[in-house]
Amino acid sequence: VNPQIKAIESIPHSITLGECLKDGPVTQVFHCVFEGIKAVIRLDLPISQTLGLDRFSEVELLKSMEVLADTPKILFAAPENGVLVWQYIPGVTLEDETTRPIKIASSIGALLGNLHKLNAPAFLPVFSSFMDHYRDLLAAEMNHPIIHKGFALFDSLSNDQAFMVLSHNDINPGNVLRSEKLFIMDWEYASLNHPYFDLASSIENFAFNYEQIKEFIQSYETNGVAVDLAELVLWREFSLYLSFFWLMIIEKYATISETEKAWMVKLENRLSQAKG
Predict the structure, then answer these.
(1) CA 20 to 30 Å from 195, out of 79, 122, 153, 166?
(2) Are residues 15 and 139 in the same domain?
(3) CA angle at 238 for the pair 232 and 239, rounded to the nearest 5°
(4) Are 14 and 36 in contact (CB under 8 A)?
(5) Contact, 189 vs 127, CB < 8 A?
(6) Residue 70 clears pLDDT 90, i.e. is over it
(7) Mean pLDDT, the chain, whole residue set
(8) Is the pLDDT of residue 94 over 60?
(9) pTM (two decimals)
(10) CA quadruple 184, 29, 203, 271: dihedral positive or negative?
């Protein structure tokens, strides 16, 4: 029996599956009706365990953040079975550039500024624990020059543990929903981390241009923290290495799509030209 079907059948509630919203290598996401409420359900695929995703911490984090209304309301969670159901929020993700606010860079900067000001729950994992796990998963490939350089860069950056914040760690257009305001979705990689990682990955994943980067940083800095631009450049480079690591793990332990293969080739070409 398909493990995802078993997971759905284990839910002690009335649930009707709708259209598939996402069929990725790590999870499947569907529209659904949960006890008569319009909702969304996420089902883990086996590699979610390989990646070391802590579903229990994710659920606790989302519940603790519900009062802020910047995250979806959890209706049901069975982290032991890789099941999460949240209330449907009408809106569109920012993957389609036509759906993005005119001042998208400023909006994302303000969103992250507010996020990083929150008190981070003590139960959250530390980002370096993810990196240690990735290092183990890629141990056989450690002679690959890009992997070696990427981990070396992280080791140099992680020496700065001065101020870690609640970080989403996967800010990208598909994880930001535009409704009556912007909502951040998919908190599965959230941890305590240096704030520059969220900034760096946002710049790269939204492909902000020079003017947008200035707007993004100015908006973020209204939270009272000045951004070191030289250090941010290094975190931007590291964010690319991390994407490459993730794709290498997907290729090694699961099934990688043609789109992801093309992304990996593009990253490999870019990182092969990086200095250092």
Answers:
(1) 79
(2) no
(3) 90
(4) yes
(5) no
(6) no
(7) 93
(8) yes
(9) 0.93
(10) positive
Q: Residue 276 has what pLDDT?
A: 59
Q: For residues 242 and 177, what is the distance between their CA atoms, to the nearest angstrom?
A: 24
Find the helix or strand (DSSP H, E) in which 204 lies.
helix 195-205
Report the alpha-carbon distance of residue 49 to residue 209 in Å, rounded.
Answer: 36
Do 140 and 153 fall within a single domain?
Answer: yes
Output the CA–CA distances (angstroms, integers) from residue 241 to 24, 96, 222, 261, in the order listed: 20, 25, 29, 15
pLDDT at 163: 81
Based on the structure, what is the number of domains in the chain?
A: 2
Residues near 79 by beta carbon (within 8 Å), at least 6 away in sequence: 55, 56, 58, 59
Q: Looking at the structure, tell me whether residues 112 and 75 fall in a common domain.
A: no
pLDDT > 60? residue 1: no
Count of H-run helices and E-run strands, the chain = 10, 10
Report which of residues 96 and 115 the model is more confident about.
Answer: 115
Token readout for 103 is 């001042």
DSSP secondary structure code for residue 49 in this structure: H
Q: Based on the domain organization, do 159 and 47 belong to the same domain?
A: no
3-class DSSP state of 179: coil
> The domain that contains 17 carries what CATH number?
3.30.200.20
| Res. 30: pLDDT tops 80 | yes
Integer-rounded Cα Rg, in Å, for the chain is 19
Query: For residue 98, is pLDDT > 90?
Result: no
CATH classification at residue 125: 3.90.1200.10
